Amino acid sequence: MRRLHPALVLLSFGAGAADAFAFLALNGTFTANMTGNLVLAAMFTKPGFEKTFICAVVAIAVFAVVLYSGFRLTKGSGHGPDSPRYVMTVLLIPSLVAQLVVIVVWLFIWKDAPLAVVCVVIAFSAAALALQTVAAKKLSDVDGITTTYVTGTLTTTMQALAERKDSGQGMRVLSILALPAGAVAATALYQLAGWCGPMLPFVVTAVATLVAFSARPAASPSSGAPQAEAPSPRGAPGV
Description:
This protein is mostly helical. It has a single domain (2-214), classed as Growth Hormone, Chain: A, CATH 1.20.1250. The protein is 66% helix and 0% strand. It has helices spanning 5-25, 34-40, 49-73, 83-109, 115-139, 151-162, 169-192, 199-214. Helix 4 packs antiparallel against helix 8. It is globular and about 50 Å long.
């Protein structure tokens, strides 16, 4: 599983990029940070609250449904040598497809997009990030790693620091730092060329998927390793 760590860090970077793009371009809505959306949906005195409420509810609903579907689809796949590849196939590849839809739609409507189309973009982006969240939970061997939000990761990191536990700390810190780094990169890209805003999350997720697929699982005992001879039954003559 350690071979998958670079892919998880890249997914954190991509999640930060996706959330920054969504907040800047999609009516101040998040597509990975559902805590933020819950707060936005309750801020009824905010200017333009009606639009914000609709967009936030769409993101939350789609994220929750796809999250549930992703966990159901991979239920029990935590066992067996081929399960990581199965998880990546059914989660990361569909996530890439959803992000590609976001890019295609955005290229046509990135100026003066109607609310209905913005909600479609939000829905596909939230679906992509939900699938990545499930993939990270299934593939990570480090406690507390969440690539689409860092509150849980930060909590686990501080708990481990307070209890003097070093296991997985480096990976958790990298995941935390990667998310704002992705947000900075996406903000700069959106400022330079708004039309290519959703391309960075797609490219990073594509690289993460390639890295994950290229990470070979550890060799199983039957793959070329010499097997110990089974002991003879007690009392049986030696061979």
